Input
Amino acid sequence: MWKRAEEAKFKAYLKQREIEKIEEITKEWKGREQDRELQFSDALKGLEQLEGKLRQQALDLQRREERIIQLEEELKHKITEVSRQLASKEEEVLSIKKRFKEEKQQLESMQKRATSQIEDLRSKLDQADSKFVGYKQEIEHSPLNVLRNELA
Output
């Protein structure tokens, strides 16, 4: 009986130790589980923050890209406008050159005509002078003038 009582005590003691060990392991496991849970939640929060930063950066990049596209469009528009103005100015310069060339030709032809008219008028003047000199000599040698000179 004593042996059975000791055996029962020993079994109870072992049972008690087993329960304590199980509780200890359970507590340890729950502590580790809580640590893992905490680490997981911290990692999740970190990921959420990182995701927020990434989204913000993606938004910033998208805004920058839109701004760059807008600036490129403005630049294209300005280049087109400048090209159009340049073409217009080139056409204007060409038309002015053409007009000046035509005016130069007109002036040259007018100068040629004026020169020929001057030459014609000079030849007429020379002819008129020679006629005048001829008439003057004729008048001086005319019998009426000779008579006047003799009377004088």
Observations:
- Residues 125 and 131 are 9 Å apart (CA to CA).
- The mean pLDDT is 94.
